[in-house]
Amino acid sequence: MSIATAVFSPDVLTIDAVAVSATIESQIREIVLQRLNRKGVIVAMSGGIDSSVVAALCFNALGTTRVLGLMLPEADSSPDSLRFANLLAQSLGLRTHIEDIAPILTAAGCYQRRDEAIRKVIPAYLEGYKCKIVLPDQINGSAYPIFSVIVESPSGERTKARLTPDSYLGVVAATNFKQRTRKMMEYYYADLFNYAVAGTPNRLEFDQGFFVKNGDGAADLKPIAHLYKTQVYQLAAHLGIPQEIQKRPPTTDTYPLDQSQEEFYFPLPYDRMDLCLYAKNHGLRPEEVAPVIELTTEQVARVYRVIDATRNATRYLHRKPVLCEEVPEVPDDVRL
Amino acid sequence: MTLNDELRQFVTDNFMYGKPYKGFADDDSFIERGIIDSTAVMELVAFLENRFRIKLLDQDLVPANLDSVNGLARFVESRLPPNFSKACDPSRIVLGV
Description:
Oligomer: heterodimer
Shape of chain B: globular
Number of helices of chain B: 5
Structural class of chain A: alpha/beta
Largest sheet of chain B: none
Shape of chain A: globular
Low-confidence stretches of chain B: 90-97
Low-confidence stretches of chain A: 1-5
Structural class of chain B: mainly alpha
Order of helices and strands of chain A: HHEHEHEHHEEEHEHHHHHHH
CATH superfamily of the largest domain in chain A: HUPs
Largest sheet of chain A: 4 strands, parallel
Radius of gyration of chain B: 13 Å
CATH superfamily of chain B: ACP-like
Largest interface: A-B, 16 and 17 residues
Strand order of the largest sheet of chain A: 3-2-1-7
CATH architecture of chain B: Orthogonal Bundle
CATH topology of chain B: Non-ribosomal Peptide Synthetase Peptidyl Carrier Protein, Chain A
Number of helices of chain A: 14
CATH architecture of the largest domain in chain A: 3-Layer(aba) Sandwich
Number of domains of chain B: 1
Radius of gyration of chain A: 21 Å
């Protein structure tokens, strides 16, 4: 038994939430006011745990006059998203603004283009139906992660079909309008007030490329990108984030039908996914990890392979524009 | 052109883009060689269904069937009618000749 086996447990992700919060708040002040030279920060609030924690950290760091929380609902948003975001704003005393982005998305053809892509595999998908896309079980099966679409008729009848390449890309391209429109609105307010934009990815999302390029992936600072989601929950408890938000299951809130992050992206719920990612990052072998998270060695090995494959597939999302030749006057670490 | 040749050609043309051709063996894993990702698998499935007029079920979408030229060839041959086995030119199958 290695030393790592002896110490590996869910406790490896326990942090000193008081100290970590204080450190990040200090860093936010330094980044926003000095390095970025902005007067404050915009935080888009989805009512989820990550954006709630980022909003609270920014509020503590900069005060009520230098933080604006934006709520950006659209036609498929869960009513809970707005309700929870409002709950947080009231609890913090945060300035907020609501922009319904549905008219912009409609004008851009977001919903129409998505629905047309779905009809390529389910022609009976009509107005009034709901939809989501889902992956097969990546832990218990050996199937490739090929998406299917599930549609639900107004009477509740569900149909599932595997997506073809053009229908899949059509659905993704259309729904990505949502994240990009939100980011456009965030930067509108950032420009209006001379603020910076805070991104809200946790480490799992950042590492695994769970974001839309130039959508929710775009930001001037990402205060919790180094923290596992498990650790974000610890910060939430310390910061006094309302219990309803802390207990809300993570959701993509992108499709009309409820969609968990496991259906859409990650092979495991976040707590076990965090542990697998931590273990992999620290060189632990699947057989050392499996008993701790109640999976088989083969299942952990499969998660490791998914982590590697996803990292490779999403490198493009992280990459800044590639220049044909360097421009020395614009240092690499400050340019897009 | 053999079935293996056609499958290798499809993979090379569609997933290796303009990369310098380094060649890969018929038993090489596409995943391990970094040749395909999940979107490419969808394209591969669509190609097999259209080109050979076979229907792939969810349980068929596993690396044993789709992760190498030899795996693909074995899978395609197992799904073709008996009279269209190994020596048969796939292009004739599609045309129903």
